[in-house]
Design a protein that fits this description.
17 strands; alpha/beta; Rossmann fold; 2 domains; six-stranded parallel sheet; seven-stranded mixed sheet; 437 residues
């Protein structure tokens, strides 16, 4: 069984794309094992295409829709006598179970755990940190990074559960009782508790870089080393050099991108160091009047977005910074290809999939010397201190103004990205699954 809830999200970032592509590639390379994909809502798109049957849990305690009858059509779909939606798929070893839950929190630890109590799979794979409290003995979890332990103040003010004050207080109290007073219901505490729980109870832990493994080992000091490093990949069929200038132009116009630009993709928040990027960009433009490039920021607004907007106003960059919001993945390669450079200023990264995407598209990279970024980028990026906006500004101006440097980085990036693929990631993950049999 695989937790597909993150892979099934509409707006995906690193962890969601990891979950999505590992599942997709497992379907391509493994026709022998039987898989159940668990989700909190009906599967869509590339995940639905994998499954021959999708089961909707219709227990009155959890479901918000009526039970389909055998042979009945419901919203254009047909169901068998066990409540499985009948689908067409070449992968007859994949089916899905939709575990409906009325609340926007605790799906993993309550609803998913109840499913595991009554109907455990032989092996459970959790692609994102949080192993459910009730789980099979043979479980694998991926801990991507522990940035929440290193940047604690950025996570400590966000809460899980209800937003209303009294309900939040009760939820926080219940969580403290459940964890014997050690943890509250902040995002920081939940991530810390769930990572420690997974590390203790999962038979195998996967992490996505040697940097992340070192951080996990040093911070949590597990009794035995059961951590396997398996690198992420990228969609090589989508992210590549594109020569059709007109097609690039169409996508740029769709997102109101005009003129030369440098590119950033990721959540717009303090954790990703977006406010510092804006300040560094302003310094680079001030120091080098010949830089006419816009700064394009692609991604969802997140915690600290107010500071992003403030920095744009503070440096009078309303006409120079373009915020596209979330961009469909089909458009992303065109924006990479149209960019003069890709800037990755993160304070902490467990991997950094956008680095691979930029390399594959032939976009030169300037990135922070933080977390796993030097490990993943290798020699295919110029690195700067993410806590020093002057260092970042010099990297931005250097990569824009030095054409020789740009061409060198492009070549190194195209060579470096050959070391990564989702197929390789899935095959190594499958090997870990097979070892638990």
């Amino acid at each position: 069984g695989i937790d597909a809830s993150r892979a099934n999200k509409d707006h995906k970032s690193g962890t969601e794309w990891y979950s999505y592509y590992v599942i997709r590639w497992l379907a391509k390379i493994d026709s022998k094992n039987q898989y159940i994909l668990y989700s909190d809502k009906p599967l869509t798109g590339g995940l639905l295409d994998l499954t021959t049957k999708q089961h909707f849990d219709t227990s009155p305690a959890f479901a918000s829709f009526r039970r389909p009858l055998f042979g009945q059509e419901m919203n254009g779909a047909r169901f068998d006598k066990k409540g499985f939606q009948i689908l067409k798929s070449p992968h007859d070893n994949f089916k899905a179970k939709v575990l409906k839950w009325r609340f926007p929190f605790c799906w993993t630890q309550i609803r998913f755990s109840l499913e595991m109590l009554f109907s455990k799979p032989d092996i459970l794979f959790i692609p994102a940190h949080a192993l459910p409290i009730i789980h099979p003995k043979r479980s694998i979890a991926t801990i991507h990074d522990i940035g929440f332990e290193k940047e604690r103040k950025l996570y400590s003010s966000d809460y899980l559960g209800p937003r209303a004050g009294v309900f939040r207080y009760i939820f926080n109290l219940l969580f403290r009782l459940f964890t014997f007073g050690r943890y509250g219901a902040t995002v920081l505490d939940y991530h810390s508790w769930s990572s420690r729980f997974s590390l203790k109870h999962a038979r195998r832990i996967i992490t996505i870089s040697h940097f992340s493994k070192k951080e996990i080992m040093e911070t949590y000091k597990p009794k035995r080393d059961k951590i396997k490093v398996i690198y992420n990949g990228y969609n090589k069929f989508l992210y590549k050099k594109i020569d059709q200038a007109e097609e690039i132009k169409k996508v740029l116009e769709k997102h109101d991108i005009k003129g030369p630009y440098i590119f950033y993709v990721g959540r717009l928040e303090k954790k990703k160091n977006t406010p510092a990027l804006i300040e560094a960009y302003a310094i680079a433009k001030e120091d080098h009047k010949e830089i006419k490039h816009k700064l394009v920021l692609a991604g969802d607004a997140s915690h600290g977005y107010d500071e992003v907007k403030y920095m744009i106003r503070e440096f009078d960059l309303e006409n120079d910074v373009i915020i596209t919001g979330w961009v469909p993945e089909a458009d992303m390669p065109y924006i990479y290809n149209g960019a003069s450079a890709f800037i990755f200023p993160s304070l902490y990264e467990g991997f950094g999939i956008p680095l691979l995407q930029a390399m594959a598209c032939g976009t030169p990279i300037a990135a922070s010397r933080a977390g796993s970024i030097p490990e993943i980028a290798g020699k295919a990026a110029i690195l700067f201190d993410p806590n020093n906006v002057k260092s970042m500004a010099e990297a931005i101006s250097g990569i824009i103004l030095d054409d020789g440097l740009r061409q060198s980085l492009i070549k190194k990036g195209l060579d470096r990205v050959k070391d990564f693929s989702w197929e390789k990631c899935a095959r190594e993950t499958l090997a870990e699954i097979e070892e638990l049999k």
